[in-house]
Write a structure and sequence with these properties.
The protein is α/β, with parallel strands linked by helices. 38% of the residues lie in helices and 19% in strands. The chain is globular, with a radius of gyration of 20 Å. The chain starts with 5 loop residues before the first strand and ends with a helix. Bound molecules: adenosine monophosphate (AMP). The site of adenosine monophosphate has 17 residues, from helix 2 and strand 5.
Length: 293
């Protein structure tokens, strides 16, 4: 059902509304996005409703998280459709930050960096990306001052970077992850899927299938690195250009050792000009369970 949603493009008016809500004891959940909304984003909004009384969504295509040769200029901007969708999903406030309120000093940015975690996996192939993400999310957290913020597990590394940033800087905000929304054929939903042509779109769900095969192979006893390398080679033979396929420890994305039971297999791979991300979280039986069976 559509509902009243207010759109704010000034920080002062947004803050006034949020402090009114908080003064009357209402809990506020926040979903930051770059717009061009799809089922994945609306899943976060729906989840946010289960956690709070009011849901605030921001749309801001953040220049500092794009590399010089990436798609900042051409990133799809579809505000009208996004607003209608957010109304349908009972969003209370849509925040459209102004560039000069996010970056008041222009290119001279006070950066927020999360070392280590930002330099591996996607961070290794997109230098500066997570610095841009952490820097904009810290600003958005200060602007919105929510009780809870919701991020998608599709961008699992981003979720961990933000958790760490938030804890490190002492934001009194609970960070929640929401599961990956997929199309019926298994492809993780993404604004960048529209860069796929028809033939690529048909082939794209193979990415998720190869990750499932990595999980199956590891459960059958194959070494992690070998299972991941085989999936990567197979994806290459199927026309993908993988940046990586890796099995990691879920808590910190470090290389797992034999005692780690909570794992994740992650990939980033180009198909045509679309860079697709996906991952599967999985648990191995504890060593004592294995020795009992
Ligand atoms: P973006 O607009 O791409 O920056 O994404 C905004 C938020 O939506 C991030 O927290 C993403 O992780 C999340 N998100 C995007 N696609 C999906 C998806 N398919 N499933 C779950 N969350 C998603």
């Amino acid at each position: 059902m559509a509902t009243e949603m207010k759109t704010y493009s000034s920080l002062a008016s947004l803050r006034a509304q949020i402090s009114r809500w908080r003064c009357s004891g209402l809990k506020v959940a926040f979903v930051p996005t770059m717009g061009n909304l799809h089922g994945g984003h609306y899943g976060l909004v729906d989840y946010a409703h289960t956690l709070a009384d009011r849901v605030v969504v921001s749309i801001f295509v953040n220049p500092t998280q794009f590399g010089p040769n990436e798609d900042f200029a051409s990133y799809p901007r579809t505000l009208e459709a996004d607003s209608a969708g957010l109304r349908e999903h009972r969003t209370a406030a849509l925040y459209l930050p102004q560039m000069d309120e996010i970056y008041p000093y222009g290119e001279s940015v006070a950066w927020v960096e999360v070392p280590g975690l930002s330099e591996i996996l996607c961070g290794a192939v997109r230098p500066g990306h997570f610095r841009g993400v952490a820097s904009v999310v810290a600003r958005l957290f200060n602007h919105v001052a929510p009780d809870i913020a919701v991020f998608g597990e599709k961008d699992f590394q981003q979720l961990l970077v933000i958790r760490r940033m938030s804890t490190d800087l002492g934001f009194p905000i609970e960070i929640r992850g929401a599961p990956i929304a997929r199309d019926p054929d298994g492809l993780a939903q993404s604004s960048r899927n529209q860069y796929l042509d028809a033939a690529e779109r048909e082939r794209a769900p193979v990415l998720f299938q190869r990750l499932q095969e990595v999980v199956d192979a590891i459960r059958a006893g194959q070494p992690y690195a070998q299972a991941a390398a085989e999936a990567s080679a197979q994806l290459e033979s199927e026309g993908f250009r993988p940046d990586y396929v890796e099995v990691r420890r879920r808590s910190d994305l470090n290389v797992p050792d034999a005692s780690d039971r909570e794992l994740i297999v992650l990939t980033a791979a180009y198909l045509g000009r679309a860079r697709l991300l996906d991952n599967i979280q999985f648990d191995l039986p504890s060593v004592s369970d294995v020795s009992r069976s």
